[in-house]
Specification:
The protein has seven helices and 13 strands. By secondary structure, it is α+β, with helices and mostly antiparallel strands. It has one domain. The strands form five sheets. The chain has a five-stranded antiparallel beta sheet with strand order 5-11-1-12-13, with helices on both faces. It has a two-stranded antiparallel sheet with strand order 2-3. Helix 5 packs across helix 6. It starts with 21 loop residues before the first strand and ends with a helix. About 2% of the residues have low confidence.
Length: 309
Amino acid sequence: MSLEQLDNGTVEELTNKPENNYVSILVLRELESNAVFTTNGQDADLGTIGLNDDEYSPVLMFMRKQSGSDRRFAKSMQREMLDDVECTMDVNEMCQECPECVMYGSAASSSDRNISITSRVMYDTAYTLRDAKKIVEEKFQNAPGDNYSQETSGEEAMTGIREPDFVQPGTMFPSVITLKDATPEEVAFFLSTTMKNKRYGATSSRQGRTKNHILGIYTGGEEGPSNLAVTKKTIELLGEETVEQDTLDSETVQERVKQAFDQLVEDDRLDCEEVDSLEEVLDDVRENIEDYLESQEEKSREFVESVES
C-alpha cells in the first residue's frame, strides 16, 4: 500500500495527546479564471514583502479562504461516500464525529456533546509571485435603468457600479499545508480534497476556478518551510524581475517552487523528508479514497468516544 510511505509523519490511531508527527503538502495554486480575495468586499487583500533591497505588493490568499473552501468540499465529499454521515458547515450543527470534523476541528455544538476538537490541518496565508499591479484589475458595470434615453454626462451619468477587485487568471500562489498527528487515511482525505476542489475566493460559484498542483509530500518531526519563505525563495530562483512580469510559465514556476522548498529544507536542516513516489501515492488516493474514508470514519468515532469516556 503506497500510504505506508507516510509512516514517518503519521499515527496509526488518533490520540488526544499531541505528538510531533507532521505531513507537509507542497501545492501551487494556479487561477484558471478571475477570482476575488477581499476582506472589505471591495479591495483585493494586499501585503508588502521585502526582497533584498527592494519590495513588492503581493495579493494575499488568507488561510481562511483556503480552509473554508476545502472544508466545504470535504463535507460534501464525505456525504457522497459515507452513507450515514449528514454533517454540515453550520458551526452549531456539526456532528463532531465524522472524519472531516475530527480532522479540521469543530466547536462544542448544540447537541449533548460538550467537547471542542482542535484542527490538525494547518494553513498559512499564501502570497502571489507577482506584484498586485500586474494581476489585479478593477471592473465596472452599468447601473440598471429602463428609460429609453439616459444622461451621458454629469452626475446622473456617474452610475457605474464598481465590482470587487479581480485577480487575473494565471496568478499563482505557492502554498504549504501541514497535517499534524494525522492518520494515513486522513492524509489521503486531504489529498483527495486538494486534487478535486477547484473553487476558491468569494463568489466561487461563478469564478475563482483554481488548479491545485501537488508538487510534493514531506513527512517528519517538524513542519516544512512557510509560505512566505517558499515564495521569496522562488522569486529569488526565478529572478526578482518576476514580480513585474506580465505572465509566468506554469511548468517553470512549478519546478522553481519545488526547488525552493527543497533548498529551504536543506538550508534550515529541517526534519522533513520527501516521499519518493508522489504519483504512486496520488494514484492510490484516486483509486481508493472511498475505502480510506470508510476506514477513517471508524477511527474518528472511536477517538471521539474515547475522549468523552
